[in-house]
Amino acid sequence: MKIAVMPGDGIGPEVTREAVRVIDALDLGITMTHADVGGMAYHAHGHPLPPATLDIASAADAILFGAVGDPACDALDRHLRPEQAILGLRKALTLFANLRPARVFAGLESHSALRPEISRLIDLVIVRELNGDVYFGEKGFRTNAAGEREGYDVMSYATSEVERIAHVAFRAAQGRNKRLCSVDKANVLETSQLWRDTVIAVAAQYPDVALEHMYVDNAAMQLVRNPGHFDVVLTGNLFGDILSDQASMCVGSIGLLASASLGERQTEFGTFGLYEPIHGSAPDIAGKGYANPLATILSAAMLLRHSLGQVAAADRIEAAVAATLHDGVLGRDLGGTAGTAEIGDAVVTRL
Ligand code: IPM
Ligand code: MG
Predict the structure, then answer these.
(1) Residue 180 CB–ligand 1 contact under 6 Å
(2) What is the pTM of this model?
(3) Which of 251, 268, 297 is the last residue of a domain?
(4) Which amino acids are annotated catalytic?
């Protein structure tokens, strides 16, 4: 079993270190190879996603990814900015399905930005499309008819792109509470109209799943009004980016949300994928030793489950994380004082 480890920028290295320690503690005989990504890769090799990194990624069964983003790179051409590392990996490896589970851990109900009686009910997964939408459309700057400079980004989805992510979401719903909410903006956008028509067509193959459609503005509202309503949320790249950050605050901290980015390629042990916390590089707190590593540790659990077939090990990590939180070992993001390494220690002890 081979994992490519890509710590990246900002708090990426410190949170990834703890996840690697957790994997090591399980003693599963996994080989881990480090690779450079993001701003640090740009500084070392002149590119945020060097060819050697892509080679290491392709040779592995899964990727454990920290975070990318570095304010020192803000003035670079877009294709050289740190974010291109993660966007490039998702695209080059056809990792089109991003699963972002959000549920409230026992004992943390009062840490949510929502009232405990509402937050208690959160147990959902956002299935976000990752290879299309306005993220990957034609973009640029131009001079308009009035002689003014304008920026543009084209939003589009092809039917086949919507079909493949819809199948992932329907299957996810079948494995859960069989309710799927497809989020779009079909009252305004043609891209969303095609999205909705396509999801309805795919639904015919999943009669056991209850499908509903929601406009994204309403979904943002319902997510804080009544998050318990949602089981599986299917949405595009841009809306999924926004709604998943929102879901994290409903849970209590963005430092708790893990993610899996999957495609169709199978390895010897499972589905090839990339696993990362949904938070970014948080340059303001980088190196201070108090970033919460739990989102990355939970991402490692997803990696073991989906890409390496190590279901029991994944269960053990998730139980150890739940116990750590339940025992009140909380980082600053949750009003506690535990540092990054201390939280990592607490999880390892509880394994
Ligand atoms: C995420 C992040 C990325 C995204 C950035 C870093 C490019 O916000 O994974 O949610 O927008 O997809
Ligand atoms: Mg995001």
Answers:
(1) no
(2) 0.95
(3) 251
(4) 135, 185, 217, 241, 245
